[in-house]
Design a protein that fits this description.
globular, Aspartate Aminotransferase, domain 1, binds 4'-deoxy-4'-aminopyridoxal-5'-phosphate, 2 domains, Aspartate Aminotransferase, domain 2, four-stranded antiparallel beta sheet, 14 helices, binds glutamine, seven-stranded mixed beta sheet, alpha/beta
Amino acid sequence: MRTNNAPLGETTAAVKTVNSLLAATGTTIFTVMSALASQHKSINLGQGFPDTDGPPDVLKAAAEALMDGRNQYPPMPGVPELRQAVAAHDARFYGLKVDPMTEVVVTSGATEAITACLMAVLDPGDEIVVIEPLYDTYLPVIRLLGAVPRLVRLSPPDWDLPHAELAAAFGPKTKALLFNTPMNPTGKVFTAAELAFIADLLVRHDCYAVCDEVYEHLTFDGWRHVPLMTLPGMFERCMRIGSAGKTFSLTGWKVGYVTAPATLAPLVAKAHQNLTFTTPPNLQRAVAVGLAKDDAYFASLGPALAAKRDRLGAGLAAIGFGVLPVHGSYFITTDFSPLGFNGDDVAFCRHITEAAGVTAIPVTAFYDGPDPPAHYARFAFCKQDAVLDEAVARLQRHFRRNTQGNAQGTTHGDTQRNTLTAVG
Ligand code: PMP
Ligand code: GLN
């Protein structure tokens, strides 16, 4: 191997191996599918991001905050304005009493927050219970920390929590639970009874919970998000994570926030100190403006998205997809087996990208254990109505053509699963 500064023609000894876990981790499915969508100019209903910007007053606050001379490193745990706004938000929506100076940490997105919270509590060899389908950063980070995930599986179409299996996953080595509600990709919002069952397990096994609540305000049809942290005895155990990306439709901003008891928040802050140290001050200040918006703003998010869910869901159902119920998040899960496609979900998502011009995410990407359900595709509905309509029209044309026997692909089962990268 030649190093950059070795003279031409001269080689040096081979360099040592790199981190084996990272070397074995694939590129995230979201990046893979977005690249495929752009290559085929298809409508990208894969990676979950809205196609319109968030509230103009929040954008304006960010623009103004760029120009007033506070562009150097902000305080490491977050600018006071945002920490106060997070505490006020948690009090307004959940009745939580949070000290902004000792119990809030701002991070560069929920992605960093998840890692920081895991770092805060996990030692090598600790076990952590994780519910799959799961968001794709969870397992690589847990494993990099030397901890051991204990997976509990939810299965479509009901995504019911298997109480006995969950209880059995906890043992003497369990340090924490990693818990996502409203849940990606299922759209499940955990019920009060499920939360109570989980809280009881955490107390009985004396465990922490990392609570990924990025879709907290994106719930539908009267389903309301209840943070696990609000249940009796839970405040001391929970690290609650929110994301400005989701709450303000500004996914590129990467501003996240953690609410945690004063016993844990300093640990989260120390992890943040070693991951990114700080988060852009201008964006933090704008997010503080956003979190202070009136109740009507937050109340409008669910119904607006629910209408899009219904629009896309009805279109997909008319084509023949089985459309699963969704109570929160950006995503609809669909069963494509009624369409007669001969291949797994990875092949299906590649196929519709290439042949129909619409991109979705294969649901097996959210599973790590053996034999995941392989006939489901996740579509993001956080898009303009015209975009959703065009996506449905393209799929409609494609599948009508194919069911009429002019097969361009409903029998394409030849794409290998491993050409796209799944979790882990
Ligand atoms: N958790 C879940 C469940 C998500 O779907 C996402 C995707 N945005 C994240 C965390 C990451 O959020 P952020 O963009 O704020 O890092
Ligand atoms: N959370 C987004 C999704 O599930 C993706 C975010 C990302 O690409 N990291 O689609």
